[in-house]
Specification:
The chain has 169 residues and is mainly alpha-helical. Helices cover 72% and strands 0% of the residues.
């Protein structure tokens, strides 16, 4: 014997619940699809800005930007935080590294240029790694010196200069 039909309000509730699940699934699927296409576009089809026409000139500019960024990062003193030094390093890479994708296209026919680009990329990441760890080590050394100065009853080097020492006879 078949079961009696469900009351009308219960059937409407089931239909509403299913419609809600379907709507939620569509929203999540659409969001995931949009994000996927954005990521794929940025990774495999980067925008080419400021196209370089000369591979070797562009490579030279990348190396100059690395030197500039290394110098700027070495002067950062934000409480010894490695994050500040790395952020300054990245910011100082400037417009040269923003046009990196166009440089790869310009060096497409030059095997030596392509090899140089790979090596410069490796150098960039090694420099960034060095900036991060140098900042951490420098921060640790600064804290140790601060502690020793406090134990000696001396002011920190940043706050007051040390009095000039008198020469020994």
């Amino acid at each position: 014997m078949p079961s009696p039909p469900a009351p009308r309000s219960e059937r409407a509730s089931q239909i509403g619940r299913r419609a809600g699940y379907l709507l939620l699934g569509l929203v999540v699927s659409a969001f995931t699809a949009v994000c996927t296409f954005e990521i794929i576009g940025q990774v495999w089809f980067p925008r080419v800005e400021g196209a370089h026409s000369d591979c070797r000139v562009g490579i030279h500019r990348l190396v100059q930007a690395l030197g500039r960024a290394r110098t700027v990062a070495a002067t950062v003193r934000d409480g010894g935080e490695a994050g500040a030094a790395v952020a300054e390093f990245r910011k100082s890479l400037g417009p040269e590294w923003d046009a990196r994708a166009s440089l790869e296209a310009a060096c497409g026919a030059d095997p030596t240029g392509r090899l140089a680009l790979k090596q410069i990329d490796q150098l960039r990441y090694a420099e960034e790694h060095a900036v991060r760890y140098e900042a951490r080590n420098l921060s640790r050394l600064r804290r140790e010196v601060e502690r020793v100065l406090q134990e000696l009853g001396l002011a920190a080097a940043d706050s007051h200069p040390l009095p000039p020492s008198t020469p020994s006879p």
